[in-house]
Amino acid sequence: MDDTNTTAIASSASASRLDILEPLRRAALNRGADDAVIISASDVIVDPRVRFKCMIPKCYMSGNCAHCPPHGYSTNEVKDIISGYSWGVFFRVKVKSSIIAAKGLHKAIASGIMDKKGNLLNLGGHYYLVFTIVKVLEKRARESGYTTKGFAAGNCRDPFCLFQPVCQDLMTNKGCRNPGLSSYSMESCGMDAYTMAAHVGWDQYPIGGSCEPDSVPQGSLMGLVFVRRDNK
Amino acid sequence: MTSLADKPEIVRRISSHIDPVQLKKDLEQLRDKALTLGAADAAVIQKDDVIFDPELLKRVNADGGYPSVHWPLKYPKDDLKEAIRAYQWAIFFRMKIDGDFPYYGGGPIQNGEHRQWYLKLYEITAALESSGFYRGYQLSLGLASGNCRSVFCADEKRCWPMIKGRACIRPNMGRPSMEATGIDALSIADKLNWHLPEGGSYPILAGLVMIT
Questions:
Q1: Is the pLDDT of residue A102 over 80?
Q2: Can you say how many angstroms the Cα of residue A30 is from the centroid of all Cα atoms in its chain?
Q3: B38 and B95 in contact (C-beta within 8 Å)?
Q4: B143 at the A interface (CB within 8 A)?
Q5: For helices B112-134 and B20-37, what crossing angle results, to 10°?
Q6: Hey, which residues 140-179 in chain A have their CB within 8 Å of chain B?
Q7: Which A positions 43-102 lie with beta carbon below 8 A of chain B?
């Protein structure tokens, strides 16, 4: 994966405080991210308005998944979590506009019924990739003795539990069906991933249900993995 | 009437910083869009123009006879007032209604014509919110009036997302009202010197779309 267009915004001197950061950034790129940067936890934007964008008007998944608003972490809880970290790896996976802004995609997403061109399945694959990268980075960090916390994009129910009637974590006391795969998304936790992407120089476009492929050059799905070294 | 299914006229790249000149143009265009879509009055307002009335909120919270997920509001983990206070600019608009237009509160809207006015209000709110979003103000968020259940789900036995694990059957349309958040539309209109019909107990049918 060519990472010439990737900007590592943290200085190498600062980032070297955690030797794992650069390997994790490269791992994100090797696993399929199009861009990845090391960011300071202080550059993460948590905004109370972001979670409300999931709830007003209500997203089809709002209230249906334990990881989506009004469930999940409040912005204050997220701020507390972030305060425990100094650094993270922020990455994005690009999605062709012919997929993410395909005509009829929005209807397919809301209904959960596959469209004939397979755009819903293809988009789901991109989300799956974001979750996978988050989990790979978390695993590598843990194996190297770091404490870590990762956030993906979108809801986890569509990519992992599409064929299940309910979110098991939300509706029962059995917990999540896929704890090793699922995670909270940045936006469900109130992180303004769009503005963060703009801050690191990534072109990010607002894409909604009425967009068409020629409306935007491309789409992006973002993920973020924090790491820290606990003194023992 | 534009619809949410219409292709957006502008889709602008998200910027790390808001250009004040562009913002001013956008706000004026969004205000004009509200008027074009059928609002009787529309204005660009700032954060300090948004007036909260705790009594209004109490009234809504006591009005639970026809409950929905948006009336009265319950966000156990989030503070909507804090979120509203984070916006600096908004479009405030009202529909033209007669003086005898009753205050429905959160209850059913029996009069079909009145329900159509509410429907139009929600459509304009959604259209402005969508337009703001595509212009690069990705946190644009609109509030309407009344109880969205009365407008969209009058034929339903209940508001479905009130049941854990059930989704809203009108995603992207159902939304809270200003009064459910404690925002006093009447006082905002008074401050703008709008001429409202006389005689009604709450003679305004208004929307607020916060842009950035």
A1: yes
A2: 17
A3: yes
A4: yes
A5: 160
A6: 166-167, 170-171
A7: 47-53, 55-64, 69-75, 77
> What end-to-end distance do the CA atoms of chain B give, in Å?
25
Per-chain mean pLDDT for chain B: 93
Question: pLDDT tens, A127-137?
Answer: 999 999 999 99
Q: Is the ipTM of this complex over 0.90?
A: yes
Residue B87, pLDDT > 70, answer: yes
Judged by a CB distance cut-off of 8 A, whether residue B133 touches chain A is: yes
Closest CA to B71 of B141, B126, B124, B150: B150
C-alpha R_g of chain B: 17
Please state which of the ranges A106-115, A136-145, A205-214, B172-181 shows the lowest mean pLDDT.
A106-115
CA B122, B125, B127, B130 torsion: positive or negative?
A: negative
Of A64, A77, A212, the CB nearest to B165: A64
DSSP helix, strand, coil percent of chain A (3-state; round to 5): 40, 15, 45
Q: Which residues contact B195 (CB under 8 A, 6 or more apart)?
A: none
Q: Closest by alpha carbon to A1, among A40, A38, A39, A27?
A: A27
Q: What is the distance in angstroms between the Cα of B75 and the nearest Cα belonging to chain A?
A: 7
DSSP-H helix ranges across A84-118: 97-100, 105-111
Give, as one character, the DSSP assignment of residue B57: H
Query: What is residue B3's predicted lDDT score, i.e. its pLDDT?
Result: 58
Would you give the distance in Å from CA B145 to the centre of its chain? 6
CB pairs under 8 A between A and B: 135
B199: alpha, beta or left? (left if phi > 0; alpha if psi -120 to 50)? left
Q: What percent of chain B has pLDDT over 70?
A: 98
Chain B: nearest CA to A50, how far in angstroms? 7
Query: Using CA atoms, how far apart are residues B45 and B189, in angstroms rounded to an integer?
Result: 11
A53 chain-B contacts, CB cut-off 8 A: 138-139, 141
Work out the pLDDT band at A4, boundaries 50, 70, 90: very low
Q: Which two tokens stand for residue A123?
A: 């988009």
Could you count the other beta carbons within 10 Å of the beta carbon of residue A203?
A: 13
pLDDT in tens, B114-165: 999 999 999 999 999 999 999 999 999 999 999 999 999 999 999 999 998 8
